[in-house]
């Protein structure tokens, strides 16, 4: 720090030489009281600088500061009309603030992916429930793209691990677009006497769209089973609470029921279009079944035979308990009143006493199509023969 040199007053020529030396010792140099901009500049350079303690008698050489660019009107006045504070002190504080922010780790940081190979990531995802995958779809774009790209193989691994029994009982019908177009005229007319399941109306099941799915007997039964699964899951809270289900008089169809059936059809259509939705439906049916088994087990007056289920079986999230020996599961609920006593609805299987295991019905879709083709050809021949006899 550069100090000012204070001149001592001149002494008379006849003053004693010892007095002059005494005056020089008694008069110590004092700091100037007037404002000096150089002092302010040197203090603002660095508060922690060790050069402040140097001997003032030793002159220090400092480089002259570089003149800053001239300020314009836009630099002086802020957007809100206030004067912009600009000085070396504020610039120094701003730089320190930027350094602190750069060193401080951010609380939320986004990454493009997970640092795992695709093989390991798919293995991890295959152990999750379908409902967990739906949550991950809304987590990040990377996980959404990964799950949707590997949806088919991923869902297959989940079903093989968790729902092998349910997948053989609750099956998907074939779409009409996947059937031979030569059979479309016969399939688009299910009321030709082949069966009545495609046109029969239930209060809890909406008939299938003949222009959307195949109307062979196998596919229609698969459609009905899917609708029952969704409707049975919808009424589980009321069944657990012991509240009676709403009754619908015969021959009527209230608006609330039509809206409910339409929503159920939307879920079934999603299961037909997406394997992940189909796995989610199996998960919900397993949950409905375990809730029903627990509800019947708590009823001490119900002496019927039922599946043995522990708390561990219920929390496992698999259908292993349904693979064990138990009561018949093919009872079809023709009405919602059957939900009160329905414990497990698992069609397309039967218990074999000889083999001591469950036997599952094979897929009869192709056989039904052959039967439809033969039935339609025979009916067309009868119509042509009858027309010839009339002529």
From TrEMBL:
Under SUPFAM superfamilies, the record lists:
F-box domain (SSF81383)
Q: Where is the composition biased (Acidic residues)?
A: 42-54
Q: Which residues form a coiled coil?
A: none
Write out the ranges of the annotated region (Disordered): 1-113
- Where does the F-box domain start and stop, copy by copy? 110-158
List, as start-end ranges, the regions of compositional bias called Basic residues: 85-107
Pfam families with a match to the protein in the record: F-box-like (PF12937)
Q: Where is the composition biased (Basic and acidic residues)?
A: 24-41
Q: What is this protein called?
A: F-box domain-containing protein
* Species annotation: Sodiomyces alkalinus (strain CBS 110278 / VKM F-3762 / F11)
């Amino acid at each position: 720090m550069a100090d000012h040199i204070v001149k001592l007053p001149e002494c008379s020529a006849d003053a004693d030489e010892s007095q002059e030396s005494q005056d020089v010792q008694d008069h110590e140099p004092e700091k100037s009281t007037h404002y000096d901009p150089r002092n302010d500049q040197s203090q603002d350079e660095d508060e922690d600088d060790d050069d402040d303690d140097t001997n003032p008698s030793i002159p220090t050489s400092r480089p002259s500061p570089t003149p800053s660019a001239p300020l314009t009107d836009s630099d002086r006045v802020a957007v809100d009309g206030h004067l912009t504070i600009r000085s070396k002190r504020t610039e120094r504080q701003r730089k320190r603030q930027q350094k602190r922010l750069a060193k401080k780790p951010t609380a939320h940081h986004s990454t493009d992916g997970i640092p795992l190979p695709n093989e390991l990531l798919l293995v991890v995802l295959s152990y999750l429930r379908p409902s967990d995958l739906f949550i991950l779809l809304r987590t990040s774009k990377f996980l959404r793209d990964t799950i949707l790209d590997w949806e088919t193989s991923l869902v297959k691994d989940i079903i093989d691990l968790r729902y092998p029994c349910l997948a053989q009982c609750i099956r998907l019908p074939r779409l009409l677009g996947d059937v031979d177009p030569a059979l479309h005229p016969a399939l688009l007319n299910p009321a030709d006497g082949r069966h009545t399941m495609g046109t029969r109306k239930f209060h809890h099941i909406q008939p299938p769209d003949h222009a959307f799915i195949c109307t062979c007997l196998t596919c229609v039964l698969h459609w009905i089973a899917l609708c029952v699964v969704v409707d049975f899951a919808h009424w589980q809270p009321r069944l657990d609470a012991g509240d009676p289900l709403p009754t619908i008089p015969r021959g009527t169809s209230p608006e609330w029921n039509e809206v409910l059936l339409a929503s159920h059809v939307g879920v079934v259509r999603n299961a037909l279009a997406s394997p992940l939705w189909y796995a989610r439906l199996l998960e919900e049916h397993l949950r409905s079944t375990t809730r029903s088994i627990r509800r019947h087990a708590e009823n001490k007056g119900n002496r019927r035979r039922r599946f043995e289920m522990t708390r561990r079986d219920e929390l496992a999230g698999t259908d292993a308990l349904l693979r064990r020996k138990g009561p018949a599961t093919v009872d079809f609920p023709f009405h919602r009143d059957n939900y009160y006593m329905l414990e497990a609805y698992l069609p397309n299987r039967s218990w074999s006493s000889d083999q001591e295991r469950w036997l599952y019905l094979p897929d009869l879709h192709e056989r039904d199509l052959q039967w439809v083709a033969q039935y339609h050809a025979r009916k067309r021949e009868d119509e042509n023969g009858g027309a010839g006899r009339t002529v």
